[in-house]
C-alpha cells in the first residue's frame, strides 16, 4: 500500500552551511562553504522521507523572486509541489559550525504573507490534506501569519487528519500545541520555555512530557542533543542515545529525526524501534553537509550503535 505524507513548511529557507576553525567577533573569519541547499524544516523532513521511499507532497509559502532552486529540488526528488507563491524572496539562513562542534545561526527575514494569501492557503490546503496518511507541520511562522490564525488552522487540520506530527519553536510552538497534535518533537530548551521552568534532570523532562500528554497529545518526543532522544507515550518511556559523531553540520538533524519517527510510525514499527531508527538517522545527518539518507547500510550500522533504555 502506498503511504502518502504531506509536509507543511510555512517559512522555508535557503540554508547556507559553512565550516570554520573558530569564530572571532569583529574579525574577518575564513569560512569553508559546504553547501547551499533549498531547505526549511518541513522540506528537510520531505527529503529524508523521499529517500526512504515515501510518496511526498510539499506545501507552505514560497517567495516568487527566488523560487528556482526549490522548484529544481522538488522536481529532482520526485516531490509533488503545492506551495503557495507570494511576493518577495524566500529567506536565507546561515549556519556556521566551528571545529569544536559549536554552531552559530544567522536567520534572515523573508517574504510577508498577506491576509489574502493566508486565507487562500488555509482554505485550499484543508481541501486536500485530509487525503493523506500523515501530515508533518514544521518550522516558524512567516511575517503576517498570526499565531491565533495558525492555531485555528491546525485545529481544523486535526479534524481532517488525526496523524499530525508537529515540530516548531517559540510562538509557533505555543500556538500549534493548543491544537493538540498527535505527536510533537520539541527539544529540551523549547520544552522548558513551554512549561516555564528549567528541566535539569531526565525525570524533570519526563514530567514535563506528561504535562503535554495531559493536553491530549499522544506522543511526545524530546530531542536532547548528544544525550539522545526521549519518547513518552501511553505505552511507556524510552531513551535512545547515539554514539559520538564528528560534526560537519547540525542543519536538519532534528528534521531528520522527525522523518525517522514518521517513517517508523507509518511502517507500524514499535516505539522503541522507531526511536532507534529516528535517532540513527539524526546522528548520521550531522556527519554530512546536507540532509538525506544516502546509504541504507550505514543507517543499519548506526542503528546497531544506538543505546536504548526503557524507563
Q: Give the beta-strand count.
A: 14
Report the helical percentage. 25-40%
CATH architecture: 3-Layer(aba) Sandwich
Beta-strand portion reads 25-35%
Count helical runs.
10
Question: What is the SS-derived class?
Answer: alpha/beta
> What's the alpha carbon Rg, rounded to whole Å?
18 Å
**Reading side by side through the largest sheet, how are the strands ordered?**
5-4-1-8-9-10-11-12-13-14
H and E string: EEEHEHEEEHEHEHEHHEEEHHHE
How many domain modules? 1
Low-confidence stretches: none
CATH class: Alpha Beta
Report the span from N to C terminus: 34 Å
Largest beta-sheet characterization: 10 strands, mixed
CATH superfamily: Ribokinase
Q: Please, what is the average pLDDT?
A: 91
Any idea what the shape is?
globular
**CATH-defined fold name:** UDP-N-acetylmuramoyl-L-alanine:D-glutamate ligase
Describe the structure.
Catalyzes the ATP-dependent phosphorylation of fructose-l-phosphate to fructose-l,6-bisphosphate. It catalyses: beta-D-fructose 1-phosphate + ATP = beta-D-fructose 1,6-bisphosphate + ADP + H(+). Pfam families: PfkB. With 311 residues, the chain is of the alpha/beta class. The chain has 10 helices and 14 strands. Helix 4 links the parallel strand 8 and strand 9 (164-167). The protein is globular, with a radius of gyration of 18 Å.
Amino acid at each position: 500500500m502506498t503511504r502518502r505524507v504531506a509536509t507543511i513548511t510555512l517559512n522555508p529557507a535557503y540554508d547556507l552551511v559553512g565550516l570554520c576553525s573558530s569564530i572571532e567577533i569583529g574579525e574577518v573569519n575564513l569560512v569553508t562553504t559546504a553547501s547551499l541547499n533549498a531547505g526549511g524544516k518541513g522540506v528537510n523532513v520531505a527529503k529524508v522521507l523521499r529517500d526512504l521511499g515515501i510518496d511526498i507532497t510539499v506545501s507552505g509559502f514560497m517567495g516568487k523572486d527566488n523560487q528556482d532552486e526549490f522548484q529544481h529540488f522538488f522536481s529532482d526528488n520526485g516531490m509533488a509541489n503545492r506551495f503557495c507563491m507570494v511576493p518577495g524572496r524566500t529567506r536565507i539562513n546561515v549556519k556556521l559550525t566551528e571545529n569544536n562542534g559549536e554552531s552559530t545561526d544567522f536567520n534572515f527575514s523573508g517574504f510577508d504573507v498577506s491576509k489574502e494569501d493566508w486565507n487562500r492557503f488555509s482554505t485550499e490546503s484543508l481541501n486536500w490534506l485530509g487525503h493523506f496518511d500523515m501530515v508533518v507541520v514544521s518550522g516558524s511562522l512567516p511575517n503576517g501569519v498570526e499565531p491565533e490564525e495558525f492555531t485555528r488552522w491546525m485545529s481544523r487540520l486535526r479534524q481532517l487528519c488525526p496523524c499530525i506530527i508537529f515540530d516548531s519553536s517559540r510562538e509557533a510552538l505555543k500556538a500549534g500545541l493548543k491544537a493538540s497534535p498527535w505527536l510533537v518533537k520539541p527539544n529540551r530548551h523549547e520544552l522548558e520555555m513551554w512549561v516555564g521552568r528549567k528541566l535539569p534532570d531526565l525525570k524533570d523532562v519526563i514530567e514535563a512530557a506528561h504535562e503535554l500528554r495531559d493536553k491530549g497529545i499522544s506522543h511526545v518526543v524530546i530531542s536532547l542533543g548528544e544525550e539522545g532522544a526521549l519518547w513518552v507515550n501511553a505505552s511507556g518511556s524510552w531513551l535512545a542515545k547515539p554514539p559520538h559523531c564528528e560534526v560537519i553540520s547540525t542543519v536538519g538533524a532534528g528534521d531528520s529525526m522527525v522523518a525517522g519517527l514518521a517513517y517508523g510510525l507509518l511502517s507500524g514499527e514499535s516505539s522503541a524501534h522507531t526511536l532507534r531508527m529516528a535517532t540513527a538517522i539524526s546522528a548520521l545527518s550531522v556527519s554530512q553537509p546536507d540532509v538525506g539518507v544516502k546509504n541504507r547500510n550505514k543507517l543499519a550500522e548506526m542503528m546497531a550503535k544506538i543505546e536504548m533504555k526503557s524507563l
